[in-house]
Amino acid sequence: MQGAVYINDGASCLDSAALTLIDSEYDPGFYDETIELTCLIPGQQYYLQIDGADNLIGGIEGYFQIEIIDDGSITSASNDDICATAIDLGTVPNGGTLNPGTTFTNVCATIQTDEPDPGFGLGTDDIDQTVWFTFTPPASGNVTINAFSDGGNNIDLQLAVYYSADGSCNPDQMVPVEHEWDGGGLSWDETVDIPCLDPSVTYYLQVDGSSVTEDLQSGDFTLNIVDDSGSSVAPYNDDICDAGDFGTILNSETLTAQTNDCATVELNEPGIFGYAQQTVWYEFIAPPSGHITIEVDPNSILDFLPEIYLFGTNGTSCDFADLELIDSDVFPNTAIEFILETSCIIPGNTYYIQVDGQSLFGQSGQFDITITDLFPNYAATIEPPNNECINAIPLVVQDESCFVGDGIWDLENYGQPTISLNDPYVQSCNPNGNCGDTWYCFTLPPTGTVLIEGDDDGIGAGSDDSDLTVIAYTGDCSGLIPLDCEMGGGSLLGGDTDVSFEIEAEPGTKVYLQVFDGGGDDHGEDFTLCVSEQCGADNCLFAINMDPNVPYCWNTASATGEDIAGGEPGYDECGDGSAPEHSIYFTFTSECDGGSVLVSLFDIMYEDGNPAYIPCADFTGLPLDGFTFTVFSDSTPCDNDQDDLVY
What we know:
Blueprint: E1 2-8, E2 19-25, E3 46-51, E4 87-91, E5 97-98, E6 104-105, E7 131-136, E8 143-149, E9 157-164, E10 174-180, E11 190-194, E12 203-209, E13 220-227, E14 244-248, E15 252-259, E16 280-285, E17 292-298, E18 306-313, E19 323-329, E20 339-342, E21 350-357, E22 366-373, E23 393-394, E24 397-398, E25 410-413, H1 424-429, E26 434-443, E27 449-455, E28 468-476, E29 479-487, E30 499-504, E31 510-518, E32 526-533, E33 544-545, E34 586-587, E35 632-633, E36 644-645
């Protein structure tokens, strides 16, 4: 047999969606079943579902008896509502122990809507059957809470402590202070040491049973709270609005003898109900370079392993809602060093630093904190002459590619530019950020198609691989229209990748190039640029329109292939049907109906040593892979599904 018990949340028993499963039971290999139910609501109607199992001979249907037995009353929790029924344990006596001398239970307890969940490491369903207590700390503010499972009805205890941000008993205002669960049945009892509590504040203690072992999810327990003596003084910069102020970073600024001992977490603070344990705050104004390091130097890594979080703000006040995480240096990186290097922060803007301790190995301690401008003379450096779009340096459009042809590279230098344009499109072209850009321009040749190339790999003495980023625009400097962009370097694409992309527009159009080093860590280094006319469009969608009796140059040397199977626009080779390796595209419209068109290739030069033109197939019809020339008609261009193969 199989059995299940449901409660009906609706008005009709015919509404299956209103049925909520309470419990079920099925023991394969046994015909009888027993379901034990506790914490049912007196007077509430429940539904019992009986079914047969289809894995036993004769077990899918038959006759049976039902017996429901009252197991007698049990002691149920009376304090499962944080505000309405929480038990007040009173004030912890100075130098003594608050010992209620009572056995408590969480049997039949529930969880409330919006009840705070501290996160004991079991996923989203960390709390199951919670009960609540309140207490007031002693004058020292330092306590130890001990909870002991009752051997007669054991429970795997979990503890969490909160305070209310506005002093009211409102679940939405609860701020976590500390939580403890030894986990996995290692110990059913729990002890949690909590320093630095405020003797004038009421604290809320949440007790739950772990659901790892179902039989230990509810049970009986006792509590006591011990005064650990000592004193508690919160750091001056415990709250973000009291952040330690570095001012404008001019070179290297240090604040010494800092601490996060007795620091707390504020309501809605970044990391609340997560990493944040004992946080302190700092603020500074970004230097002209926008490139800094933040170093936290602990007095002892045995006591304190710092974690560093850098936030920008889109407001003018110290409001958590205005913060945006910019960068961080967290465990396990902080087990090696405690330095956060970041770039592309906006000069003159205010930024906030949150310092916390790693909760497993070193949560609080003393430290020095230093912010260093990595380019302290940046403001005094002369900006590049092409720092703005209106001062773009003209480039010569060459006849051949510089990577695979005989084109000549233009040697350029990033210099130390400022940011002239950093809209969402620019940010999408390089997620490492635009820390300062320079500008170039050229005029599109008669084909209307050019190849833009850039090399940033070890160019010039002392240079390394940078994140060279090039963005092409039409329009004018007061209204730029982006065409395309590409990022080189190794940060996202891996290896020594270079810039190489094709653009197309009306012949004679002026094109602007915005150039920057993503991340801004290669200011003053060299790179090269090359713009060359494309004799034939590498991109099928940019196919060059041909007029009758007008010669057009063509060159496959710098062209790339297309991943036709992957959905890129273009066509497979007409011979063996493979993807093209170096394809270019032209298009024309016939002026006659049913007549003939002569397409001629002349002045052919084979740079790769191919001896001659190879047709789509040999005289036996065997498909060939080589230099091919194909003409076809297509009403839906570039979809690899031509209407008619002409040649």
